[in-house]
Amino acid sequence: MTALDTAGPAVTAGPAPIRSTKRSARRNTRKWGEISLFAGPAVVVYVLFVLLPVALAAYYSFFNWNGLGPLDRFIGLDNYARLLADPVFHRSVANNFFIIVMSLVVQGPLAILVALLMNRPLRFRGLLRALIFVPYVLSEVTAGLAWQILLQSVPPMRWGPVDTLLRSIGIENPPAWLADPDVVMWTMFAILTWKYLGLAIILMLAGLSGVPEELYEAAALDGAGWWKTQWYITVPLLGPTIRIWAFLSIIGALQLFDMVWIVTGGGPLNASSTMAVYMVKNGLNVTQIGYGSAVAVVLFLISLVIALVYQRFALRRDLAGAITVGVR
């Protein structure tokens, strides 16, 4: 018997890598097929209803166009120059940022406080949560018309229900809530707080449900009071929820339109105008689609820049933490 006979049959490794490569190619094809199947419709909708309108608005903004005739009056950046020189637009931007600042300063702490109180054992706690959330569920049209009637102080109603109530308790000269340029934005902020505070409270309650009870027990053993426990344990652990709510509040304030349009129409004297209201009044309502498109582009750019900056500096820790948890 020779050495070749004792060594056994030779092993050929040629076809195995080929089969492995084919299996890998089939897996990749199947993976991209699944991605296309599930993400494809969403991508198509996003392109058609987000990216395409933005691109068209940017294109129309370079024309003096009424929305009906041909696009043959190219004016370059004249719409943007007119927009940036308009003091009414400046006031509209200021009103948007007024709502942003007041929401973060007033609505946020108020929502946290109410959520902390409602997170304790209370009778009818479920009913109270439902009642707080009801204003957010109401449509903007219904809520806006209701507040317009409640605060009305001009003919045909001499006084609205709110003014009548105030006069009944001795306040003879209540302010013109919706007709005084110095008061109207404060009135709008109060209405917006009533409308959207419920969402903030529900979000905070959801965040509180994720705080471990063991931390409260350890704080109680250390002799910490209720307020100190909330300040040093609950509020820091609510950080991700607070940052998400703040982001939603900022973007919502920048895009504020419906409540203002229904309650005041941007008046009096453009005192309650926002960027979206200004866009409709000076673009669509007077058939200046090119100018309105320029306003839309500026609003989009302001929202985009604020969103990117907020994500870079405020949401970065939350995103990094989520990625780390996913990797683990």
What is the mean predicted local confidence, pLDDT?
Answer: 84
Structural class: mainly alpha
Instruction: State the end-to-end distance.
Output: 58 Å
Main β sheet profile: none
Layout: helices, strands, pairs:
Layout: H1 3-7, H2 15-60, H3 78-84, H4 87-118, H5 125-137, H6 140-150, H7 161-168, H8 184-208, H9 213-221, H10 226-237, H11 239-254, H12 258-263, H13 275-284, H14 289-313, H15 316-327
Descriptive terms for the model:
328 residues; mainly alpha; 15 helices; disordered C terminus
Give your account of this protein's structure.
With 328 residues, the protein is mainly alpha-helical. The chain is 72% helix and 0% strand. It has 15 helices and no strands. It has helices at residues 3-7, 15-60, 78-84, 87-118, 125-137, 140-150, 161-168, 184-208, 213-221, 226-237, 239-254, 258-263, 275-284, 289-313, 316-327. Helix 4 (87-118) packs parallel to helix 8 and helix 13 runs antiparallel to helix 14 (289-313). The longest helix is centred in the N-terminal third of the chain and has 46 residues, at 15-60. The chain is flat, with a radius of gyration of 29 Å. The chain starts with a helix and ends with a helix. Residues 322-328 have low confidence and may be disordered.
In short:
The protein has helices at residues 3-7, 15-60, 78-84, 87-118, 125-137, 140-150, 161-168, 184-208, 213-221, 226-237, 239-254, 258-263, 275-284, 289-313, 316-327. The protein is mostly helical.
